[in-house]
Specification:
CATH architecture of the largest domain: 2-Layer Sandwich
CATH superfamily of the largest domain: Histidine kinase-like ATPase, C-terminal domain
Number of helices: 9
CATH topology of the largest domain: Heat Shock Protein 90
Largest sheet: 5 strands, antiparallel
Shape: elongated
Structural class: alpha+beta
Number of domains: 3
C-alpha cells in the first residue's frame, strides 16, 4: 500500500521480506533447541526430586539403624546423627551442634585419633552414655581427603556386647565355683571354728582376742565371697534393699580400717549428700567395695599419709547415684585398661584375675555398672553407678 501510494519504494519490501525470512529461519532453528531445553529442565527437576527422595530415604534408614552413627564436619560440628546415637550422647546432640558442647570426652577421643595419623579406627578410649549405665567405644572413619576432614563416628555399646558373651563366661565361672567350693569351705569353716574356740579361752589377752575376732570376720567374708560366686554363676535372684548410702559407707570405712590393719584416716569418705539412697544387695556392694579398696591400698598406699578416698554423689546428666573409689597410685596402663574386667586377666604374678570380674558381675546383678577411669592428676577412679532411683523395681 505504501509503495502504491508513492510513500515507499520497492527496496523496502525486499528488506521486509528478508527480515521475515530470517525470523522464520531463526524460529525453525530455535524450536528444536527450545524443546531440548524443556526436556533438559524436566530431567533436572526429576533428578532433583530423585536426589531429594534418596536423601530422605538415606535419612530414614540412618535414623532407624540400631547402630549409633554421628557425622562430624571439619569444624567438629555435628552434621548428621541418628536416634540411637542421641540416646547415648543426650538430647542436646542435634544437627549443627558443636561436638565439644555435647560430649567433651568424645571430642577429645576424636582429636587424639586425628593427631595420630589414623591407621586404626579407634584410639582405645571409652566414654559413658548420658544415662551413666552404658560404656561406649567410638570408632572413626574419614570421609574424603585432606586435613581436617569430616568423620563418620560409630558408637559401639560395649555393655550390650558384654551381655552377649556373659553366658560363656558364667558357664566357666560356674564350673570353677563348683570345683573350689568344697575345697575352700571346709578349711575356712575349720579356721573359723578354731578362732571361736581361741576367743573363748580364759586368760586370753585383749590383743589375742582382737586377732581372733579378725580371723573370724575374714573367714566369714571368705565364705560370703564363695556364696556370691556360686550365686553369680547360677544367676540367683539378688536381695536388694533400699538403704542410705552415706550411713552404709561410714560403717564400711570403720569395718575396713579396723579389720584390714590400716591406719585411721587412710580410708577417707567424702559425703556431700547424706540423704542419698540406693537400692542394692548390701552383701554384694560390700564385696565389690572391699575388692576395690584392697586393690587401691595394694597399689597406692605406700606411706602413712597416703589416702584412698570414697566419694558419693549423683551424675549430672542422668541424676543416677554413684560411689567412687579414688587413689593416687600409678594408675592402669592404657594398653590393658580395657581388659581389667576380663576373667583371669591380671598384671600381677600372684593374682587370680577374678576380683574385678566378679565385682563387675555383681554390680550388673544389681542393675549397676562398674567402670574405670584414669584420675585427673594421676591415679585411678573406679565408679559404681547405681540404677536410676526414680525407676526402682519392687523387690
Amino acid at each position: 500500500m505504501l509503495s502504491l501510494s508513492g510513500v515507499s519504494d520497492a527496496s523496502d519490501l525486499t528488506q521486509a521480506g528478508l527480515l521475515g525470512g530470517v525470523i522464520l529461519i531463526a524460529a525453525l532453528v530455535v524450536a528444536p533447541l527450545a524443546g531440548r531445553l524443556r526436556e533438559s529442565e524436566a530431567l533436572v527437576r526429576q533428578r532433583d526430586l530423585d536426589l531429594a527422595n534418596l536423601a530422605e530415604l538415606s535419612q530414614y534408614i540412618v535414623e532407624r539403624l540400631r547402630e549409633s552413627l554421628v557425622v562430624v564436619d571439619e569444624q567438629d560440628r555435628i552434621r548428621l546423627i541418628n536416634e540411637s546415637a542421641r540416646q547415648i550422647l543426650g538430647a542436646e546432640a542435634k544437627a549443627n551442634a558443636l561436638l565439644g558442647e555435647v560430649s567433651p570426652r568424645l571430642l577429645y577421643l576424636l582429636t587424639m585419633w586425628r593427631q595420630n595419623a589414623p591407621a586404626t579406627d579407634t584410639v582405645g578410649g571409652n566414654l559413658l552414655a548420658v544415662d551413666g549405665l552404658r560404656e561406649v567405644r567410638p570408632h572413626f572413619a574419614p570421609l574424603g581427603q585432606g586435613f581436617p576432614l569430616p568423620v563418620l563416628i560409630f558408637l559401639e555399646d560395649l555393655t550390650a556386647l558384654d551381655d552377649r558373651i556373659h553366658q560363656s563366661r558364667l558357664a566357666a565361672l560356674g564350673r570353677l565355683s563348683a570345683s573350689i567350693a568344697h575345697e575352700i569351705r571346709n578349711p575356712v569353716g575349720a579356721i573359723s571354728h578354731a578362732a571361736q574356740l581361741l576367743r573363748e579361752e580364759s586368760g586370753l589377752s585383749e590383743s589375742s582376742r582382737r586377732m581372733a575376732d579378725i580371723i573370724r570376720a575374714n573367714t566369714e567374708r571368705v565364705s560370703t565371697i564363695i556364696g556370691n560366686v556360686q550365686q553369680l554363676a547360677r544367676r540367683e535372684t539378688t536381695r536388694p534393699e533400699r538403704m542410705p548410702l552415706a550411713e552404709w559407707v561410714g560403717d564400711f570405712v570403720q569395718e575396713f580400717t579396723s579389720t584390714g590393719g590400716h591406719e585411721a584416716g587412710q580410708l577417707k569418705a567424702e559425703i556431700p549428700d547424706p540423704d542419698l539412697e540406693v537400692r542394692v544387695d548390701p552383701s554384694h556392694l560390700r564385696q565389690i567395695l572391699w575388692n576395690l579398696c584392697e586393690n587401691a591400698f595394694r597399689y597406692s598406699v605406700k606411706a602413712p599419709d597416703d589416702r584412698v578416698e570414697l566419694r558419693i554423689g549423683r551424675l549430672a546428666g542422668s541424676n543416677r547415684p554413684y560411689l567412687e573409689v579414688l587413689d593416687r597410685g600409678p594408675g592402669i596402663d592404657a594398653t590393658i585398661s580395657d581388659r581389667i574386667f576380663e576373667p583371669f586377666f591380671t598384671s600381677r604374678a600372684s593374682g587370680t584375675g577374678l576380683g574385678l570380674f566378679i565385682a563387675r558381675e555383681l554390680a550388673q546383678c544389681n542393675r549397676a555398672l562398674l567402670v574405670y577411669e584414669p584420675r585427673s592428676g594421676g591415679g585411678s577412679t573406679f565408679r559404681i553407678v547405681f540404677a536410676d532411683p526414680q525407676r526402682w523395681e519392687q523387690g
